[in-house]
Amino acid sequence: MKEREFISELVEALDLRLDGCHLATHQSLLYDLTIEDDGHVRMGIDTETGVPIRGGGKGFEQDILLYETPDSSDAFPVVPRVVAEVKFNRVTTHDTIVYSEKARRIRTVYPYVRYGLILGDFKTIPGRVLRLGQGFDFIVTLSYPFVVDEIASTRVVFLEELQSSRDLGRIAYGKRCVSALRRRICLVEPSTADGNRR
Predict the structure, then answer these.
(1) Residues 43, 31: contact at Cβ < 8 Å?
(2) Which residue, 50, 68, 142, 195, shows the most beta carbons closer than 10 Å to its own?
(3) Is 125 helix (H, G, I), strand (E, B) or coil?
(4) Which range among 33-37, 96-100, 119-123 shows the weakest confidence by mean pLDDT?
(5) Residue 148 placed within a domain
(6) CATH code where residue 115 lies
(7) Taking the model in full, what pTM does it have?
(8) 6-65: per-residue pLDDT in tens?
(9) Which residues lie below 8 Å from residue 22, measured CB to CB, with a gap of 6+?
């Protein structure tokens, strides 16, 4: 199976149809808003749709994107909430470094976005992914063929990360005040049902 096929099946299994949210695969997000030497901001967006485009040094394609569309017609049409990069059957040190850096760069434009990595056909997260993937807000492994409980847990991760993104956005832009913020680590032990997977 190819990674794109896995992503397609995963999106269908997650069934993330949520009020006010949209789900896209292989859509680009901006990672750079530069004021150029002529004083103009070049955003790297399609002039007809207002959607970020890949290439030209401005946009990265995301495997899975959960986003909102503002009601205002003069607003940017995509407010990204949760991004997931997907690797199926193998993940390299290079993948981990690149995706972690993508997360960092995308957060310079969208500081409230939650960025994760989904490892398909893995039982546990490789140590190098944890060491080098410090830009990730979440990392999830999934069996393939899919296991119902793992899909349900991953759906919960998306929902919780969506809420975290909304909360961070409100805090960052003065719509909500807090006196403390703490990031917790949630660990889940692998099931012992299939000890042969990575």
Answers:
(1) no
(2) 142
(3) coil
(4) 33-37
(5) yes
(6) 3.40.1350
(7) 0.89
(8) 999 999 999 998 988 999 999 889 887 777 888 877 777 777 776 677 665 567 889 999
(9) 66, 67, 68, 69
Q: How many CB atoms lie within 10 A of CB 151?
A: 16
How far apart (Å, rounded) are the C-alpha atoms in residues 86 and 70?
27
Q: How far apart are CA 64 and CA 29, in angstroms?
A: 11
**Residue numbers of the domain that contains 87:** 3-172
Between 27-31, 102-106, 141-145, the lowest mean confidence (pLDDT) is in 27-31
- Which helix (H) or strand (E) segment is 12 a member of? helix 3-14
Distance CA 86, CA 139 (A): 10
d(CA 149, CA 84): 19
Of the listed ranges 14-18, 29-33, 71-75, 79-83, the one predicted with least confidence: 71-75
Distance from C-alpha of 136 to C-alpha of 189, rounded to nearest angstrom = 19
Question: Does some domain include residue 80?
Answer: yes
Within 65-126, where are the H helices? 93-109
Neighbours of 126 (CB within 10 A): 19
- Number of folded domains in the chain? 1
- Give domain status of residue 198, yes or no: no
Tell me whether residue 101 is in a domain: yes
**What token pair was written down for 14?**
């997650």
Residue 58 and residue 32 in contact, taking contact as beta carbons nearer than 8 Å? yes
